Write the structure tokens for this entry.
Amino acid sequence: MIDGKKVLFSGMQSTGSLTLGNYLGALKNWVTLSDEYECFYSVVDMHSITIRQEPSELRKRARNLLTLYIAAGLDPKKNCIYYQSHVSGHAELAWILNCFTYIGELNRMTQFKDKAAKHADNINAGLYTYPVLMAADILLYQADVVPVGKDQLQHLEITRDIAQRFNAIYGEVFTIPEPYMGKAGANIRSLQNPDKKMSKSDENANASIYLMDDPDTIIRKFKRAVTDSEASVRYREEQPGIKNLIEIYCACTGKTPEETEKEFDGRGYSEFKPAVGEAVVSVLKPVQDRFYELSKDKAYIDGIIKENAEKANYYATKTLRKVQKKIGFPERIR
């Protein structure tokens, strides 16, 4: 708890380009959570280097992502928005937690298996211990809740296991985090393969809507979206492509699936697809405009980076010193 509020932690990797799924499933929800929780939103650039990155590109993407956080509506005065790499406590706590994590637990992590298969030429130790760094990210700020999708639940479970194991030995050091499951827009699917989640790493550019796509590109991608031959706008499992488009439309307009079905009753996909595109454009344009405006103000963004790193370091150090004392590291002489 900080100032009577429960603590929330989340973050995104500074790789690739954020998608509509990232926005509707995470960023948009984050904005609504800042009144209820003390929020720490990290640009997790340390996680990003498990895959080889071009240094200048990584720095650029990290800054763009932090700027997008603000452009999407996160107030840097109410939320701690910072670079993971600017808080050394993440790495320090991760090493300690490595010593309280079992090989068998890491062997069960499905995301490691998936990423190792995609990057067979670079199966490094960081990729393997990625869940421990994620645990450190969360536990460092004594987070009460963590917004997660279904694909991240396994990582939160191992975080809880590590924290409970540490607490059983040394007392109540860590808060045991609970998952926060978002609703609207939390499961946006690929436009080309609705069996897959919309991903910023998808090789098919038409499969994903990126936050910075221009209106013409967005409309074109929706017109090419995979649907079916039924030509009826119905929200049902038998029509996964249309079901996905309805969920996107509802997330952008605030309408229900039932209202959407009624609105497009008797109208074909040739009308519905562009309508979904227009709804998405209307949601993303203000974010894009704000991003371009913020990007021009270097001093403002630099100030946020400095101020928020100091705040994150303050809370991280409180936890880290407590952990170091518990396990027997020598006290620092001031």
In short: The chain has 13 helices and five strands. The mean pLDDT is 92. The first strand starts at residue 7 and ends at 12. The two ends are 28 Å apart (CA to CA).
